[in-house]
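Recall the central idea of this unit: under ordinary conditions, the amino acid sequence of a chain determines the structure it adopts. In this exercise we apply that idea directly, starting from the sequence alone.
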Amino acid sequence: MTATRSDGTGARRAGAAATEFDLTAHWRERARGREGWDNAPALVRDLSTRFTATVAEAIERAGGVPGRTETEFVAATWYGTSHVAEVMHEQLREAGPKWLDPEQFLHYSPHAMVSAAALDLGLGGASATLVGPDAEFQAVAHAVRRIRSGRAATVVVAEYEALTPFAAAPCPDGPGTAAGAPPEGRATALVLTAGGGRGPSLTVHRSGEGEGDGADAPAGRAGTTVRTGGPGLLRLLADAAEPLVVVSRAAGFRDALVLG
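Accordingly, the structure predicted from this sequence is:
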């Protein structure tokens, strides 16, 4: 028998927004090598602006968030922007003295996108950025648990991806596209609130290692099939109009998110 634990009433999806954007200009700058280095900070600022605008749109669609200074913010990304890592790599391979532009470090951390958006939008609660192929699932699960436990009334969950050639080359199974072609950049944001509001509910069902498939029970109750989490999960949750069960892809665990 599978042992599962439900995290109670969970949260509500109050608002959502998503956008895609062309990365061709960014990839063109990378192809210029040294001549394109000076544009790296500007490109990352452009991506940050797009990300912030997506979060702002989700908040607007939710009818705003009460108590912005207490609203929490968690984001997820597979590879982040990788622009600064790529520039650093190119510079260190150049002949002659090795140098790094200090300004580049302002855009190095994947969390910089969240920090900039939180400051611009006045979101003053706890924030975090999760990285990796299961990051979106874990970000949503974290937000639901924060709300269910009463530690937060509203949590903004977001994701972004803007691969550079450096990040895309070794990642055929990642959120990229055909070799040598720029993938689409993307950003998605969900506003989750305490139960009782408008919008479909989101709950978390947990099962530990060796306990089997924790998605079986919620899938049976929801009368729907099970999807596996991964990059693009937030877009799936943002667009879903029918009950949906998504199971974590993390090895050894079969936690499930239920949208219903």
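The first helix runs from residue 24 to 31.
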